[in-house]
UniProtKB/TrEMBL annotation:
SUPFAM superfamilies: Cytochrome P450. The keyword Heme applies. This is Cytochrome P450. Its cofactor is heme.
Amino acid sequence: MINLSNSSTIAALVALGIASVTWKLISVRRFYKDLPKPPHSFLWGHLNLWGEIMALFPPQTHYQNYFTEIAKRYDLPDVWYLDLWPLGPSFMVLATPELAMQVSVVKVYHIHRWVEYFLDVLFGPKVIAGVNGATWKHLHHMLAPSFSPTAVKGQVDCIVEHVAVYHNKLRALADTGEQFSMQELTSKVIFDIVSSVVYGFSLLAQQRGSQFLEDFKTIFNLGPAYVETKNPFKKLLLWWKMRASRERSEKLIHQKIKERHAALFGEDKYLQEEKRAKLCVMDRMIVQQIEELGPKARDGLDPQFVKLIVPNLKGLLAGGQGTTSDTLCFIFLLLSLHPEVMSRLRQEHDSFFHSDFDETVRMLKEKPTKTNELEYTTAVIKETLRLFPIGFATREAPPGV
């Protein structure tokens, strides 16, 4: 026998739910009515458009490319909106540096929580690029000295050595005419450079390949799919596939932290800033921790400190590696399309450096600031970054904004 009272209650709740969703739909879609945006569907918002744009690109493409494609296709202004309700967040896209400063410098909006979650999957918790407030300030205090002009110039020797290997490989390939992947070759030299700058040792990806690099590629290839999928079984499978790569990379970093702590403890010369110029990022962080702990540092580093720096060391390696190798490949692409720019670039290099490559290497090691004189080369780099920008941030508006 049907209980009419219960049936009426259920029907009322269903009707209330439908009314609530309908009202929300109307409210959200009306919000975008007079705002700058691509063509907008009252029923779907921009969900269909987003799917159409995603289909144009390879899987797991960075969504910065989707925004760029939409803006170019519909000739959108510097500020425009994207409505992905109810399956995704709503976006206000700021397409110039001046506008981006309004939410990152003039008023500092928090990094979006999705960024923190994504970086957590790739590297672990509390990576500086995904945190806010006191945690960000603490990490910035630890990391900033490693990126001062003095510290960067102190790393020129190791950079030049790795680039010399890269140069020789390119020369050999040019002589044979063998087809090769510029992106793959460039990613290896940048990986060697960044690993030296961050960890103080090279992973020698150019000479013999690197399991560490392969592990990073595995995590980068599977991580986005892990974040995007709603299927719990697929998520578990992806986590399992990433687990071994994550454990191997973290084991190596923990081992190197212990080795460097043992080597640096008691080395008073590194207490002077000018003596730290050639220290890698990891060594600088360890020296800071030794200073803070004092005599207690003899017993080892604070476990919480180690837990904090390991994900950040991984994040620095990944961040420096991908952006730099991509930019270099874009530079080579553009130079191949504009021989007149290539000719002028070579003229500048010939006027500042020796015709003998080994002599040029020696000059750079003796005077790292020599690169500051390359005005046209700097302009080429800046123009490439203008055409293929790597600057991108996702901020979260505070309540009420």
